Structures are given as structure tokens and as C-alpha cells.
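HUMAN: Would you supply a protein with C-alpha cells?

ASSISTANT:
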Amino acid sequence: MPSIDFSYEAAKRRLNFINLPFMPPNLTDDERHIFLSSLLDFTNVSMVRATGGLLKFLEKNRIGIQLESENSRIPVLGLSSFTLEKILWMDENTYSALQVFYEEWHPSVYKSSSGRKEGLSLYGILNRCKTYQGSKELRNMLLRPTQNLEILTQRQEAVGFFLATENMETTTTIQDCLKHIKNIPRILAHMAGAHATVNDWKTLYKSVYNAMLIGDLCSTLPQRIFIINKITTTFTSDLCRVANLIYKIVDFEESVNQDHFVVKPGVDEELDQKKRTYNGLPDFMTKVAQQELSQLSDGIKECQVIYLPQLGYLLAVPLTDEMLASSNYELPGLEFVFMSNNVAHYKTANTRELDNLLGDTQCEIRDHETQIMHRLQNIILEVSNVFTDVVTYSAQLDVLISLAVVAKEFNYIKPELTNENIVCIKGGRHPLQELCVTTFVPNDTYTGLSGGKMVIVTGPNASGKSVYLKQVALIVFMAHIGSSVPADSAKIGVTDHIFSRMHTRESVSLGLSTFMIDVNQMAHALRKATSRTLVIIDEFGKGTEIVDGLALLTCSLKFWLKKEQACPHVLVSTHFHSIFNLLRPSALLKYQTMDVLREEDDFVFLYQLKDGRADGSFAHHVASLAGIPTNLIERGKQVSELFRQNRPIPPINQEVADAKLKTCAAVVSDFLHLDLDSADLQAFLQHVLKTMDNDGEEPT
């Protein structure tokens, strides 16, 4: 299919006009988009384009409706997403909320071609790779966390091997070699296009040489480690053969000096003979020049024989005063060719004989070396699959060593991966937050089996609830790329999805309100979460009326609780304390809160999770820390307490309020005793207007 059938805008239009049996009738275009956005995440560009291309294919081939009228449309019963190769699926919002990747502007635009650099992110702290290919492989690994226990176990075993103290020297040596393995596919592409530079040849040789060193080193290591075994069996004799050929043929020192491919002596006898002839030309041409000078007139004191490509050998004679005065450059027995910089160039019998004997020696040498270079390129390109494997396995080796280096530096441990449907983390830490604080307080997490599968976390503002939710998700995510995790111990079951309702990514292009984006994130979790899904929800419902937000959160949690053992792992943080009375006790449900020490108006946040419920959000304390004026905070406390007791809220200035109340009562009394048919009506209206004007309000 042509690429235009997969354009994002065209695919988005096709999806917006799709008809589903369960779609409400008579929807406007905006309402259709809102409804469909709850079924399909339009921020997943590749998925939207693939779906649009599929719809185009079905419409073009009229699959299933070949006998229907031309106006009949393809009947679509529903939309369902799936992942390839047992990938742990996360949407773009979750990647953003967890800060797996985070780009920021570089302070100096000259430091980066795009002006962007990786900020504080999981990728940023895990990336200790020495090669460009390794960094790219790590990014791909983070974009495709896997559920395959065999692959994860192999990665863990390799990370553990490179993490061991007795293997530290070996690991350092391998890293030193990896630094010199460059982007070989790009060099091979240059060779295939016949425009490889001298630097490409140097880079290729250095890469192949260091790959050989890595292969030799890995051959002495335990072959049970999958990546070591792959390298030992892949870095074969073809690699040594190519390295030897490049070493024996290419003269890198002369290639750099002459800025073109130069062949070493002893490779080709014919080429060596041409070079000996060419190297002896200066002395020979000096003798020829002396012979020519003896045959010229006495007025010419000097000359020289030079060689110019295409023109051959020429006799160069500086112009005499007589030649300059007469502008006559003709000399007896010589053929004038051209004049440049007061030097006339001639063809003579001797220079013609040099042309016949020696020819265009320099060009012949270059052509001969180019032929040798092409033969060498063909040999290298024939075994290009070996170089592809070298790059692939070197990148994987680089990533695994990088994960080991990070694990050692930050004291990460190897998690136990299991098919049991549990998430048990002891002493878990947030990998990013712990780098930004002096002391980080670890917390435990137990969901699944007897520990329940839904945890509702309450506590004051700024007590660490959001950080806790993110740390659990990050630890589960890191376990599914084969990395060590920041915890004292961890036993994590295979997870198929991680959904989040934490971060609202607003965009004008989406055409959705802030609350609608939040609801869409929740809708995706409700539709797609399975018993092996992790869902983290941070203060869902706060973007609308309190009662409506509380109702939506409660019914969503009840929806999952009714699934019993099919309920996903759900971690919720909320300030809706009324939810305690709306959810029935369940073996799947437990309440936890962040511990706080309170003494009168002083609070100390301990950031320690414990079982129980919070009795308040202490928003006024957080507001005072943020610098809100004291009088506003005191007024807020007063209103909050009266609102909680369902009592009327008095105005700030009671005297002014009482005076206004008396004035209003007098006006009402006068109005009730007024005879509307009398002439006093006009006087009464004037009195009312005057009274309102005196109160500083605009008369109506």
C-alpha cells in the first residue's frame, strides 16, 4: 500500500467516521471524537496510522461486502489493541508520568545539534553505554519491556556476572574496547555507495580490531552467559580475515597525509613499480630540465620540467624582460601551451618523449589503488552480515554492562521474577527521587495473594503519595527490562500492562478538555486492565465537582473489586476521605496512609507508609509553607470547619454585614407597606437607588 494511506491525519479521519454497534446515535463530530478517544489512544501515532491503513485496505478491497451495494460500508464490530512478542504495554502518558524519558533544552545550543538533551529520567541514569549503538539499544529496550521470563532471566544473569567483584577487571577491559566500536552499518553504506573516506577505513579497522579483542576475551569467560556465548560464536574467523586484509593493504599514515586511499608497499608489484618510477621522477626531471636549458638562448637563465595531470610533462620557463616587453612567448623549437604567473609552459621533444615513456603516472597510481580498494570493499561487503551481528551483540553487551555499573553505583538488587500474580517489594525506593534528596525513606509494597490487590493511600498534601505510586510502577517496569531495581528485595510477577492516571498531557491538537483527558486515561485502564495489570491512580476526580469526581472514582474502584481475582493491581491516592464510607470492606481492599507527626500546628512528614486512614489533608499547613498570607490561611481554616459542620459561613466584617442587613430590612419593610397606586412609588424608587449608591454598589 502507498505510504499516503498510512498518513496520521488521514488515518485519524477514517477512525473518526467509523460506525460501531454500541456507539450512541446522532453524535456530532466532536462527540464522536470524544467517544472514540476513550476506546483508542490517539497519542499512539503508530497505532493510529496502522489502524487507518487497515481500514483503507478493507474499504478498497470491500472485504465481506463484495455483493453489497457500493454505498455499503465495512461493518466494524469493535476495536481491540494487542502487543507483539509479549511486550509489557505502556501508553505515552505513563512513560511521561514515570519520567522514563525526559528531554530538556540544552543550556548551550552549540552542544547539541538538536538543542535538546536528556534530563533527569530513568533512561538518563541507566545510560552508561560507551557506544552510540548501545544507547540506542537501551532506548529500544525501555520502549519494549518484555514479559518473556527466559529473556529476562538471561539478562539478569549477565548483569549479575558483570556486577561481580571478581569480574570487575574483565568488565573494565571490555568497556575500553567497546568505546572504539563505531557505527559500522553507516560505514558499510558508504562503501556500498563507493564513497568511503579515509576516516571510514580507519574507523572500520579500529572497530573490527577491538571487536576481535572482545571476542578473544569472551572466549575465556563462562559460556553459560547468553551474550558471551553469542559473541564467542559470532565473532568468527571472517572478522580476523577482514582485519588482517585491512592491516596489510591500507597505509593509514600516507592515506591521512594524501587524503585518499593509499596501498602499502608489497601488496601489488605492478603498483610498487609505478610508485618507484613516480618517486624517481623529480631527479629525472631535473636532468631533463638541465638538458633543455643548455639548448635555450643565453637570455634564459633557468627552467624546470613539471608534471600536470591531463597535460602531461611541460617545460616551465620564467618570462624574460624581453618577452614581457614584446608579449611574445614563442621560442624556437618549442610549442607554447599557456602562461601563468609570469611563467610560460611549453611542449618539447623531451617532454613528449616523457609522456610516451611514463604516461600519466600519478593518475595511473590512483586508478590502480582505487581498483584494489574496490576489491577490498567487495570482500568486506560479502561478509556484511558478520558486521551486523558484531554491532547487534556489541550493543547488547554495552547495555548489560551499563545496567551492572548502575546497579553497583546505586545499590540496586536483582528482583525475583515469577509467574505468580504478585508484587512484593521490600524497602522500595524511587530511582530518580532518591538522587534529589539527602535522605530517602523506603517503603514496602505487597499486592496479590493474601495481600489484597487494591491499595487506597491517603495522607496530607506533600507527604509522598505520588512518589510512592511512581516508585512501585518504576520498579515493576525496570524488572521487565532485566534491570536490577532500587529495593532491599523484590518478587514481581509477570505484568502485561501498566496504566496510569497521574499526568495530564494537555494539547490543543487533541481537542479535549483537561478533565476529559483524565477520564480517557481512566477509561483505557477500565477497558483493558487484566488480573496481571498494574494501575496507578493519583487523585482522579479532582478536575470537576467534588461529588461527581468522588462518584466516578468510587464506581471505577467498585468495577474492579467486583472482578474479584480478575481485579488488577490498583494503587490509588486520594483526598476524598468520604470514599471510606462508600466502599464495602473486601479482602481485595486495604487502606494505607503516610505517617505524620503532629504537635499543635507543627507537622513533620515521615514519608513512611503504614496501614490506616488519614484524618485530614492538612492543606493549610502546606499553604503556609508555600507562602500564602496568614490571614487568608486562618480564614480558610474557619470556612473549612464551618463547611464540615454544615453551618452558615459568616462574612469577614460582621459590622458592615449587619448594617447592610438592616438597610435591606428597612427597604423591604417600606416596600411591603407601599401603596403601588399612590404617588409615593416614584419617591420610594429614588430612595432605593440612593441607598444602593451610598453602599458603593452600582444602581440597577
